């Protein structure tokens, strides 16, 4: 057997549309040649318009998923966390990262606070627990600007980034899709004060699951041994490609096509040239 594909573990909620959450994570990780290990944190009733219902899983249910996986699977390359939804989910993930065998695992944390429509994923206590229990283990934090502002209480990107870095995050990528700029300017902040702007063309339309796609792609890069900067570059390139090939599934937001590269190969008869 050839076991060379990196294993990327994702903590996320389910999305029936396949646009965001666990389904988006699994598609992205697979499309980039890694293998997803999934720990479900919650159930949703949602479509491309919005979220009608969210039910976090119990700490016991999340812990049993994780422990059963770890009893069998030991070679994990990185962890991506999206919607955690409960203090219990935060505690389970923090417990994994405190374990000596997994303390060095790269963690990409996408602090999803609400859907694009504004439907919230968790109460204030969840995000407070995230800051106290996970930021110290976080390799890369990927908030959009509204999330960065809400979590940090700061009024500027630089101040928010400094807040997260001082709280223990090793790097912070503040996404720029919510800012009124001609291009989407994503900015990576590193502990040495370095600030790297990574702009990309702004695409028409609104998308469901772009943040999940980006964070998962960055986690694959880290699992492959890339630097944070190179992993972010990979994630942004992959995400922009998926968004530029987005598909219509419902009557709301477009869904990124994470498998567009494979479809291009099929259209060429499977050639890798």
Brief overview:
With 273 residues, the chain is of the alpha/beta class. Helix content is 37%, strand content 18%. The protein is globular.
Structure report:
By secondary structure, the protein is an alpha/beta fold. 37% of the residues lie in helices and 18% in strands. The protein is built from nine helices and ten strands. The relative contact order is 0.15. The mean pLDDT is 93.
SSE topology:
Elements: E1 7-12, H1 21-31, E2 35-40, E3 42-46, E4 51-56, H2 59-70, E5 78-81, H3 87-98, E6 107-109, H4 124-133, E7 140-141, H5 145-152, H6 157-166, E8 172-174, E9 183-189, E10 195-201, H7 210-223, H8 228-244, H9 260-267
Parallel strand pairs: 1-2, 1-5, 5-6, 6-7
Antiparallel strand pairs: 3-4, 8-9, 9-10
Helix pairs in contact: 1-7, 2-3, 3-4, 5-6, 7-8
Strand order of the largest sheet: 2-1-5-6-7
Number of strands: 10
Order of helices and strands: EHEEEHEHEHEHHEEEHHH
Distance between the termini: 26 Å
Provide key terms for this protein.
single chain, 273 residues, alpha/beta, five-stranded parallel β-sheet, three-stranded antiparallel β-sheet
């Amino acid at each position: 057997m050839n076991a060379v594909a990196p294993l990327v573990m994702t903590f996320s909620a389910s999305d029936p549309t396949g646009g965001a959450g666990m389904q988006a994570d699994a598609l992205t990780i697979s499309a980039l040649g890694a293998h997803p290990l999934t720990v479900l944190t919650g159930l949703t009733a949602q479509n491309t318009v919005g979220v009608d219902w969210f039910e976090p899983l119990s700490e016991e249910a999340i812990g049993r998923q994780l422990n059963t996986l770890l009893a069998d699977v030991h070679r994990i390359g990185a962890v991506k966390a999206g919607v955690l939804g409960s203090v219990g989910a935060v505690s389970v993930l923090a417990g994994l990262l405190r374990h000596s065998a997994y303390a060095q695992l790269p963690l990409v944390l996408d602090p999803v606070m609400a859907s694009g429509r504004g439907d919230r994923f968790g109460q204030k206590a969840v995000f407070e627990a995230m800051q106290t229990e996970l930021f110290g283990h976080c390799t890369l934090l990927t908030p959009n600007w509204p999330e960065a502002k809400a979590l940090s209480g700061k009024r500027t990107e630089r101040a928010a980034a400094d807040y997260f870095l001082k709280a223990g995050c090793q790097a912070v990528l503040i996404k720029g899709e919510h800012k009124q700029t001609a291009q989407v300017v994503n900015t990576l902040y590193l502990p040495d004060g370095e600030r790297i702007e990574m702009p990309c063309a702004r695409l028409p339309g609104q998308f469901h699951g772009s943040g999940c796609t980006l964070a998962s792609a960055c986690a694959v890069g880290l699992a492959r041994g890339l630097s944070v900067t190179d992993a972010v570059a990979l994630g942004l390139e992959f995400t922009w490609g998926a968004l530029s090939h987005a598909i219509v599934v419902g009557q709301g937001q477009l869904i990124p096509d994470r498998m567009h590269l494979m479809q291009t190969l099929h259209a060429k008869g499977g050639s890798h040239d």
